[in-house]
Structure formats: C-alpha cells, structure tokens
C-alpha cells in the first residue's frame, strides 16, 4: 500500500464526464428501498439462534454503588448471562480522545442513564424484566451541574487529575480542555472603539434525534473472535476501542456496517458495541441489542449546551476593531470529543469576519449532566449564535443595515483568521449575504384568502386553530457562519480506498471498497460517480463497508466526500495508469497515439483527448484484473498553541448564509418560519441534488435548535424529556420553504475543487431565525431554543 498527500492532478480539473459521473445528480442506490420501507437497517438484523441484550442504567446522576445483587436476574427463566463491571475480561474504559468512559459503571455512576449491568436472554422482554430484578444499592452524591459547582473550592472531582500535556493548561481538574485564542492588542483596540456591545448568550442541549435507534448484532466466531454488524460512523475507531475491552487482537474483531438510520455525530462514540460483543463471547451465542427511543436518549452523546459572553468594539464607520469572548461548554460526565469541540469553538469564535484584535477563551467542563460530544456543527454552532446576535446589536447601535454591516467586515480570500491561519481559498462571505438579501420576500399575511375564511395552515399554531392573525407580526433576519472541514489540529486525517477493475461478460466493471459509514450523506452515490468519471465505466459495484479494508475515518466533519472521495479518486488514477500501461504494452507498437501524454478513459474505451478511440477497456484488460488499495491524505494541519491559539489548525473552511422570514403570534408566543433561504459555496457540487438536500437538512436542524429542540436536565441531573413526545423536532408541517443558492468557487487544494457542505447551513440557520423573531418582537432573546414564554413574558 502506498500513501500520498495531494497527488498531482487532484485539483479542480476533471476528466471528460461519464454518464452518472461527477457533477451530475446521480440517484442514490438505496433511495427506492428507503422510501418504500424495504431497506434493511441495523435494527432489522436477525440470526436464527440469537439472544437479546438489555442494559440496566443508573436512575441517579451521581452516586456511589454500594452493592449489586444479580441473583434475581440470573434466576429468571430464559436468562443466559448477567454482566457487571466485575465481569469485564480486560480493559474497563474506552474513549475517543481520553479513555475515561467505563464500559460498565466502576463503583460510581456519573450521569443519569449510565450503564450499570448487562443481561442476555432469549426474548427482549425477558431481558428487560430480568434487568429490573437486579438490585443495586446507591449512595447519592452531590451533583455537579454547571461551571460554578464544577470549579468551586472543594468541588467533587469527577475524574482523577490528568498528567498529559493539556493538564497544565486547565484551571481545574473538572475542566476537560481549555483553548485560548489571542491575537493583537485588545486593550488598545477597545480604547479606539466608538461603540462597544457586550452580551451573554445560552444554547440548550440539542439531541441528534436520528430516527434509527442504536442497534447491532454480535456473532461469536470459531476462532475465538467476534463478528459485529453495527450502525456506526467510524468502524475503525470502534474497533480500536472495542478490542482492548474484549481482550482480543484487532484482527479477531471483524466489523461490518449495517444500515444506519441517521447519525449527525451521535454515533461517533460507542453505545452498545462492546456490550453486545461481551454478551456474545460470554454466552457463545449471537446477541442482538436494539435501544428503544427512551434508551436512545441515554445511549449517545448530545450537543454541548453552552454559556457565552461576548464583547465587540467597532469604529463609527462600521469596522470591527476587537472581539473578546468566553465560551463555556458543558461536556457532561465523560470527555468524548470535547477537546476537539473546544478547539473548534475557540478558533471559529469570531465568525467569518476580519478583526485585528481577539481575546477568546473556550473550555469544556466535566459535570454530572449527560455526556456531550459530536453533533453537526461541532462547537461552531454555539459560537455562531452568539457572534451573529452581536453583529445585529452592533449594526443597530451604528444605524447600519445588518447585512451591510456584515459585508463591511466580511473576510475574503487572503484574510487572516484569529489563529493566524491565512484563508487561501475562496471565502465569498459578502456575496453569500448579497444573494440571500436579494431574493424576493414571500408575500405578507399569507393566511388571508380572497373573500373567505383565513387559511389557518399559514398561521403560527394555525393547525390548532389558535388565531386568525390578530396578533401576528412579521420579522426578517440574517446570519452567516464559518465552519471548518475535516479533522483538525494535526490529526492524521486520511482515508483508504480499494478499487478493482475487470471485464465481466465483455464489459468493464469497477468495484469500490471503503470503510466509509454511509449514514445518509450520500457517499454511496459519490464514490460511484468518481469511479465513473475517472475510469470511464458505467458499471460500478460498491462493496459493503467493513474492517477488511483500511480506515476511512469518521463520517463527520463534512469530510467524507473530500477525504474518502479523494482516496477513491487516487486509487482510480492508479488503476487508470495501469490500464494505460497494459494498453501500451499490448497495442502501442501498432498505434503511436498510445504514447501520447494524455489519454482518457471514457465510455468503456481508451481514447485520445481529440476523441480518437484506441481500444475498448475490455480488450485492454484481456482477462487481467487490476486491484489497487491506496491511502490519501489532505494537506497537513497543526495543533493550536495551548497559550495563544495560533496555528494552521484547519484544512478548509466552509461558508453559508441564511435569511429567515418568520410570523410571530405575540399574544400566544408562537412562531411560524415562513421561509429560510440559504446561499452556500460548495466549491464543486459533485452531486447537485444531494448537495441541495444536505443544505436543506442542515437548515432544518438549525431551525429546530432555534425554536423547539432541547434536552431538559433537572437540577438533580435527571433528564426530563427522553422521548419524541416531549423532545420536539421539526416535522414537515414545521418546515418552511428553503430555497437554496449554490455557489461553486473551487478550492484548488481539494479533489475536484469541492468543499465539505453538510455542516455549514446548521450554523447560520439558528441565528437567522432568532434574528427574525427579534425583528418581529423587539425582544433581546439571548437563549435558544426560543420558547413561547420568552415571547409572552409569562
């Protein structure tokens, strides 16, 4: 296997386009099955002699386990195994960045819902009833719920103090990670400022709310290993954590991706993977685990709730002079990916604006709240809500149009980030704002009908017939955001692809094999498009994702089309070169055109750039099979300095802008988002229809955070709304028109010039909606989600 950084030819230029290739809206191969309900998700897995696993979870947020009696569960007919911490065969902790998460509670529970014991039985209801018979005696401990209780003198230490290189840079052991970003002279800039605006902001805990619950099937193997079929975002990261827990080498833990019903970051951490494998190896039987919806809320991490304080200074002509900010993220009981989320929040805290002086501090806390980690937007969402509110306040103080104020300060290519990194690709922030503002506004009072009763469907809360428009007012708001693409801060971010080309029944067929987790983002479509474009074939077979091939990294950070797509392209280019070498050896003596520097594969043929066909691919192959596995890396990044935050920490930036139009019933505190227009630069739309879908989907998640989505955690650390009855997400009835304007300004450093597209719209959708509500009501609204009582004062 070879490895490479950006190979020659991986810039924006493309080969002659094959049908269904790059730039076309090729249809998803799994689309029809998903629409008709025939697609097999992980929860549909079945084995003829399988057992069912169930997890007993803590009813307390912080407690010491005094004793555990499993005899009642073991005596239940149909029960095959009961496991607690004492039964673990090897490593007892795991974690994405810090190995601090117990496989099963190790004498202390640190959050409501933490796994305490496992049961395997011959029926899921038997397993559930048996788990209920486990008797656990707890001694409740003080709950650490916020920064004050986490860092006060004498605060309970939730984890032992670490001795790694980050430890010296955190103010308290209950701080997971701290990252400052300091650039320029803030004090001098403050002295020059004509206008200073400060504000405190709060973001609630959002859930990924994927519709497919955590599920998988573990099958013990004859070699003492285990085969795990699982819904996840990163097979090889799971493998790295699971194998030590099982006490097995990695080659004895074989993982295959099963159908994934959404992810959005919530499947980056382990849930039931190790638990199912432990039960399978203990019982010698296949074990299936499927979380119900209630359990799913405890089984994965959530978006970090945040408290943010911002201070901005500007000159009288509307130029930003400085930003001072403090961002406190609640990481919950375990670290998960909190250090990386802190790095994102700190480095992107200023937004897509040029500011000479910056003083930012971001940190994440250990608390007894539910663990938080990756969710779409990854730290940038929380910052964007605050800095965009500040932009509106500054514009108001200066008497400027909010879009004009943003455009005066918008970064462009060549701008310097607060981290000192130069933005060396297009940064069309001003143009995105111009485009969303230039769109025609939707008609006012859309519920009014000619001579008839109001169309209540167009009113806030209209389907409940709560109003006929008496107290309804309209507002318009704008926001723009910046998001990094790919893993950052020196992480070795690579992907692996294996491409095979052969002739089958006289036709060339390409087979692509990666470990990429398809979670709905469309990689299964994109990889086939790349193979068609690079190899000039029509038939492309995608092998199931598993650990028989090298890692593809996580399906997160908007990175898969960039990095795994880059790996597929890199492997295809090697296959192409071998095809041409074969052709030259077989036919070159008969036709001098074979010695041309540039030959293309198109339509199953080898041709010159002028279009002269030299041979059919099947004839060139003549029974040969070309099989290539390659790794590909984007250009390297570097860690941020832990004192100053300086460093080229990100590989690429993505930008999106929104204009929100809302109608607000000020009497009832109800909001209807009428339109949520988006403009986004994607570099190159590899699949334009899929890109539009990603932008609209991210926009709806931002809308949810703005007006309805929040996991409510009581003062005692207990989750109060772990169900879709009480945790509300937007439905089709809440989803407005979402017109999308896609720019394609190529990033010369990326394959095909593309730019990761999935996360950026989630950032700016939330502050745009809230800005529109502020415009309608005149209220400050410094917290999301905005609730009816925030609008009515009751």
Automatic annotation (TrEMBL):
> Where in the numbering of this chain does the Aldehyde oxidase/xanthine dehydrogenase a/b hammerhead domain appear?
36-142
Q: Record's InterPro entries?
A: Ald_Oxase/Xan_DH_a/b, Ald_Oxase/Xan_DH_a/b_sf, Ald_Oxase/xanthine_DH-like, AldOxase/xan_DH_MoCoBD1, AldOxase/xan_DH_MoCoBD2, AldOxase/xan_DH_Mopterin-bd_sf, Xanthine_dehydrogenase_dsu
Q: Does the keyword Glycoprotein apply?
A: no
- Top-level EC class: oxidoreductase
User: Could you tell me the keywords of this UniProt record?
Assistant: Oxidoreductase
Residues covered by region (Disordered)? 1-29, 440-464
- Pfam families tied to this protein: Ald_Xan_dh_C, MoCoBD_1, MoCoBD_2
Q: Which domain of life is it from?
A: Bacteria
EC number(s) on file: 1.17.1.4
One MF term in GO for this entry?
xanthine dehydrogenase activity
User: What is this protein's record name?
Assistant: Xanthine dehydrogenase subunit D
Gene designation: pucD
């Amino acid at each position: 296997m070879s490895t490479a950084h950006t190979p020659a030819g991986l810039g924006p230029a493309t080969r002659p386009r094959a049908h269904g290739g790059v730039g076309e809206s090729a249809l998803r191969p799994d689309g029809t099955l998903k629409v008709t309900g025939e697609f097999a998700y992980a929860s549909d897995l079945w084995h003829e002699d399988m057992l069912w696993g169930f997890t007993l979870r803590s009813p307390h947020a912080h407690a010491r386990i005094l004793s555990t009696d499993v005899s009642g569960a073991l005596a239940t007919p149909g029960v095959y195994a009961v496991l607690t911490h004492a039964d673990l065969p090897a490593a007892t902790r795991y974690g994405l960045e810090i190995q601090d998460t117990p496989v099963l509670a190790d004498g202390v529970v640190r959050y409501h819902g933490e796994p305490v014991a496992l049961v395997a039985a011959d029926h899921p209801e038997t397993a559930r009833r048996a788990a209920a018979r486990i008797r656990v005696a707890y001694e409740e401990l003080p709950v650490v719920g916020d920064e004050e209780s986490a860092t006060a003198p004498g605060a309970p230490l939730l984890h032992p103090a670490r001795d790694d290189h980050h430890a010296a840079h955190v103010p308290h052991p209950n701080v997971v990670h701290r990252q400052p970003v300091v650039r320029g002279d803030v004090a001098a800039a403050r002295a020059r400022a004509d206008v200073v605006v400060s504000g405190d902001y709060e973001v609630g805990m959002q859930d990924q709310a994927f519709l497919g619950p955590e599920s998988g099937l573990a099958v013990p193997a004859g070699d003492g290993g285990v085969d795990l079929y699982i819904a996840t975002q990163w097979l090889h990261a799971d493998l790295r954590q699971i194998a030590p827990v099982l006490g097995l080498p990695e080659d004895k833990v074989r993982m295959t991706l099963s159908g994934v019903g959404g992810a959005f970051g919530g499947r980056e951490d382990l849930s039931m993977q190790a638990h199912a494998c432990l039960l399978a190896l203990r019982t010698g039987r296949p074990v299936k685990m499927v979380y119900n919806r209630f359990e799913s809320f405890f089984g994965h991490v959530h978006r970090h709730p945040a408290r943010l304080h911002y201070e901005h200074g500007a000159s009288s002509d509307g130029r930003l002079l400085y930003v001072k900010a403090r961002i406190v993220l609640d990481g919950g009981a375990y670290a998960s990916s909190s250090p990386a989320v802190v790095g994102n929040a700190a480095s992107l805290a200023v937004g897509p604006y040029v500011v000479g002086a910056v003083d930012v501090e971001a940190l994440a806390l250990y608390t007894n709240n539910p663990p938080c980690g990756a969710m779409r937007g990854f730290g940038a969402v929380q910052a964007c809500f605050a800095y965009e509110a500040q932009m509106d306040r500054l514009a108001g103080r200066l008497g400027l149009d909010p879009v004009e104020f943003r455009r005066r300060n918008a970064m462009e290519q060549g701008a310097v980030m607060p981290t000192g990194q130069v933005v060396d690709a297009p940064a069309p922030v001003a143009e995105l704002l111009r485009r969303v503002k230039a769109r025609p506004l939707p008609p006012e009072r859309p519920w009014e009908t000619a001579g008839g009763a109001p169309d209540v469907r167009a009113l806030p809360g209209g389907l409940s017939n709560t109003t006929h428009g008496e107290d309804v007012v309209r507002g318009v708001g704008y926001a723009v955001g910046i998001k990094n693409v790919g893993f950052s801060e020196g992480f070795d971010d690579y992907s692996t692809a294996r491409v095979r080309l052969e002739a089958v029944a006289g036709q060339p067929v390409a087979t692509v094999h990666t470990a990429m987790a398809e979670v709905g983002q469309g990689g299964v479509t994109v990889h086939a498009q790349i193979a068609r474009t690079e190899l000039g074939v029509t038939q492309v077979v995608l092998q199931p994702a598993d650990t028989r091939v090298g890692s593809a990294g996580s399906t997160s950070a908007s990175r898969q089309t960039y990095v795994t797509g880059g790996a597929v392209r890199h492997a295809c280019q090697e296959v192409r070169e071998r095809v041409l070498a074969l052709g030259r050896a077989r036919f070159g003596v008969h036709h001098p055109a074979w010695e041309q520097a540039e030959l293309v594969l198109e339509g199953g043929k080898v041709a010159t750039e002028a279009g002269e066909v030299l041979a059919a691919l099947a004839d060139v192959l003549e029974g040969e099979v070309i099989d290539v596995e390659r790794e590909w890396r984007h250009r390297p990044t570097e860690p941020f300095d832990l004192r100053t935050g300086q460093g080229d920490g990100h590989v690429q930036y993505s930008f999106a802008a929104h204009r929100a139009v809302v109608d607000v019933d000020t009497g009832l505190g109800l909001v209807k988002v009428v339109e949520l227009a988006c403009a986004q630069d994607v570099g190159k739309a590899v699949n334009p229809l899929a890109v539009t879908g990603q932008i609209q989907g991210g926009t709806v998640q931002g809308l949810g955070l703005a007006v309805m989505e929040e996991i409510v955690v009581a003062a005692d650390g207990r989750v109060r709304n772990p169900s879709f009855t009480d945790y509300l997400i937007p439905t089709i009835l809440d989803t407005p028109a979402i017109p999308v304007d896609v720019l394609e300004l190529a990033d010369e450093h990326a394959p095909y010039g593309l730019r990761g597209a999935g996360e950026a719209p989630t950032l700016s959708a939330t502050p745009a909606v809230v800005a529109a509500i502020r415009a309608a009501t005149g209220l400050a609204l410094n917290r999301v989600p905005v609730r009816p009582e925030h609008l009515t004062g009751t």
